[in-house]
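@channel sequence for tomorrow's demo:
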Amino acid sequence: MFRVSLLLSSLLFLNSFSFAGQFYLQLENDVTFGEDGNYSNGLIVGWESKARTGNNLGSVLGQWQNKLSFSQANANMAWGAKVSQRMWTPDEIKVIEAQPNDRPYAGFLEIEHHTAIYSSDLAQKNWLSLGVIGPASGTEQLQGFIHGHIGASTPEGWSHQIENQLTVQVGYEIDYLLLRKPAPFNSEWEISTFSHNTLSNLRSDVDLGLTLRWGNSLADSFGRLSNHFGHTGNMLSNGKESSLSVYSRIGLGYRFNDLTIDGDLPYESQVALNQHRASAVIGAIYTYTDLSVTWSFNFYNKEYHSDVKSWHGYGLLQFSWLM
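structure tokens (generated this afternoon):
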């Protein structure tokens, strides 16, 4: 019942923004790297308003959240929301019995609201989200449905997944431009740094990193990339007919807790959280009038100490459109 209510409220929440802004559908899956375990799949539907001057953030919640960011001169403000579902599984999903030495099954459903402040060299974003981890997230049924239709192995161990628990998260990210220079073919390249921080009973992280971008009119889209899961800034409302950008991001951080590993289980798990984080992304974004396509390869180090693999990866495909 909670899952149905959350999905319905999420869809109504997003639908109320349909008068303007950028919608996006994002799919993430580890099949790109021939895997079927660890972070296995993500599905995100989101929206962000056009960035505008002033303090019109659309709702009381937006006005309150904006107080989490410091004042920024010569900047535009935006707000938005997303609903997402994610799943994590052990490396071997054909095993029916519990696997105490491997990552447990975990499913997560979340609705999130954010505000953003963008300028050509400084960007701030903050998030507030509510979610549920466990059987109420519906990820067991989703994975079974997808695997059944594509002829993949049937996941057999969802009866041993992380148990139901409500989650709350607050996040803040800041991007700061270090250097931007002209490049051939009427393009530019830039280097910026970011700090991404979350406080949550799901996952609490502190991350620092660098972003390298090459493309057209980079000042108009500064800060739209993010280290935050599933966040995409509005890149289509700038009035550009077409543009192409290629980017890479690297990050290091520390994770204090992780419910997908140390949440309540119906068996005794021997898996211990690896708190030291490292990640890297290589991607490209192509926009044409009211549409854009993003493709990226995402890498991250092992999230628990007994993992036999040092690195994992997944592919990301995203479609965005203006409404």
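heads up for whoever presents: The chain has one domain: 2-322.
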